[in-house]
Write a structure and sequence with these properties.
Largest sheet: 7 strands, mixed
Structural class: alpha+beta
Number of helices: 12
Number of domains: 4
Distance between the termini: 105 Å
Number of strands: 21
CATH architecture of the largest domain: 3-Layer(aba) Sandwich
Helix content: 25-40%
Strand content: 25-35%
Length: 480
């Protein structure tokens, strides 16, 4: 099972991520196996491995160049092999693309084909017969006539009859039908071919070495039969050998049980290789591109007991230092990161909480490195109200010849709301500082209540302004 290299914990998202991409890779193999597309994709996979190795050992320019080549090659595949891709997708319905193993085209009647080739060879009638594989051959063939005739010995003999206008071209056989006649093939430029090989042989090899098709050639001069597949040229001396090669190419196995077993083993091995490859790619991405980031996140307090209020916290915001794969960090939004403190076990008074990863909710693949502050204090208490007398907070010194003889406040009492424990410790509420030195005559002034604790407030939203009336008189001269 895969482990998250950032946290060391198995995550269900990682399992789904790897299995989903493994299945996509496996389906690509099933749909395009044996074609040029698969060969090029294998080359791209090798380039990717080479690029990752270059990155690990610090070859910056090489790694950069490989990334550019891989990006360009992915586009080239779509352009160059568009016909092969289109033919595969058009030949299959959606269910066949997503599930199951696409079967071969309708089995070509090998016996009819071998008997026809034998007859052509015995008559020394030149012939060029194409049996396509999985790749589209439209870009490699020119001219010809669309046919769609049912394959038979008589049809093949008549097509290659010397008086037939299309006898010099090639015949394309797909399933049980002759789909095209008189088509022209590219000539091979190989210099190592025997001198006895004529234009038909070079045309057969020209198509075979550029596709996965098999081409049968019957020489008009000698009546000999030759098979061309890939770079290989096979002389056929026994018609039974021809049938064997045709069955191998067409996927026709004499013993269905053994063929099914062999196919199952092959597909199982391919699925396992896909799983190993995707697991390696996943580890490469999550380990090799780790990015650090810092975020300031508000703290959310949850599950507070009924009747208790939060009157003070040591911090309302915390700094999170995070790391993870670059793509994950880049796409991470502020709303995906949350910090919460559970107050269900908090008691009235001051409570201390040690913050850890259990208090932080992060997107999958993101790791918490550090949190500041690591300790948070929260003061809880019951909400209470209390009527307190108001006292003016006189400060300073009156002028030498003046003194305050009388003072009163309005209102004389004020109702405060706050934590019950705070209110119990308060007997009088004072106003803000009033400097006597600035007073010179009797009068009135307005000041405000001095609420030292931010958790205290005036009840019912009343005004916290206090009106002070005072009387000042001159000091009496001392008698000598």
């Amino acid at each position: 099972m895969p482990l998250d290299p950032l946290t060391g914990v198995i995550r269900w998202q990682d399992v789904i991520d790897i299995l989903l991409n493994t299945y996509i890779l496996f389906r690509l193999y099933v749909l395009f196996r044996g074609s040029q597309v698969m060969r090029v994709m294998a080359g791209l996979a090798f380039l990717y491995v080479f690029q990752r190795v270059a990155t690990e050992v610090g070859l910056i320019v090489t790694s950069w160049a490989m990334q550019g080549i891989i990006a360009a090659a992915a586009l080239i595949i779509v352009i160059v092999f568009r016909n092969e891709i289109r033919s595969v997708l058009q030949a299959q319905n959606l269910r066949a693309i997503l599930w199951g193993v696409p079967g071969k085209t309708a089995a070509t009647p090998v016996d009819i084909l071998t008997e026809s080739v034998k007859e052509l060879a015995s008559r020394r009638t030149g012939a060029l017969i194409i049996l396509p594989g999985r790749e589209d051959l439209k870009d490699l063939m020119q001219g010809g006539v669309e046919w769609q005739g049912l394959l038979s010995r008589e049809m093949l003999l008549s097509i290659f009859y010397n008086g037939n206008p299309v006898h010099d071209g090639a015949v394309v056989i797909e399933g049980r039908r002759v789909t095209r006649v008189g088509t022209i093939l590219p000539l091979s430029q190989r210099q190592d071919l025997p001198q006895r090989f004529g234009t038909r042989h070079r045309a057969a090899l020209g198509l075979a070495q550029n596709s996965d098709a098999m081409v049968i050639v019957v020489s008009e001069e000698t009546g000999k039969i030759v098979l061309a597949k890939g770079q290989e040229i096979i002389d056929i001396h026994d018609i039974q050998v021809l049938g064997h090669h045709l069955r191998r190419h067409l996927g026709i196995v004499p013993e269905p049980g053994k063929g099914f077993k062999r196919e199952t083993v092959k597909l199982s091995a391919a699925a396992l290789i896909c799983l190993v490859c995707m697991t390696g790619i996943w580890f490469s991405f999550t380990r090799g591109i780790e990015t650090l980031t810092a975020m300031q996140v508000p703290v959310k307090f949850t599950n507070r007991a009924a009747g208790l209020e939060i009157f003070d916290t040591s911090a309302s915001m915390v700094h999170l230092y995070l790391s993870g794969a670059g793509a994950l960090v880049k796409n991470m939004g502020p709303d995906q990161v949350k910090v919460s403190v559970n107050l269900s076990r908090a008691d009235p008074g001051k409570n201390t909480f040690n913050l850890s990863s259990s208090n932080v909710a992060l997107p999958p693949g993101i790791r918490l490195n550090r949190i500041e502050p690591a300790v948070l204090s929260v003061t809880l208490d019951k909400l209470a109200a209390k009527n307190l007398p108001v006292q003016v907070n006189w400060a300073g010194r009156a002028p030498d010849d003046m003194r305050i003889t009388q003072a009163s406040v309005s209102p004389g009492t004020i109702r405060l709301v706050g934590a019950s424990r705070q209110l119990e410790a308060i007997d009088t509420i004072y106003t803000e500082r009033v400097d006597i030195g600035k007073l010179s005559a009797s009068g009135k002034l307005t000041t405000r209540l001095l609420l030292k604790q931010p958790t205290l407030r005036v009840a019912d939203g009343a005004d916290d302004r206090i009106e002070v009336s005072y009387v000042m008189k001159k000091r009496e001269a001392k008698k000598s």
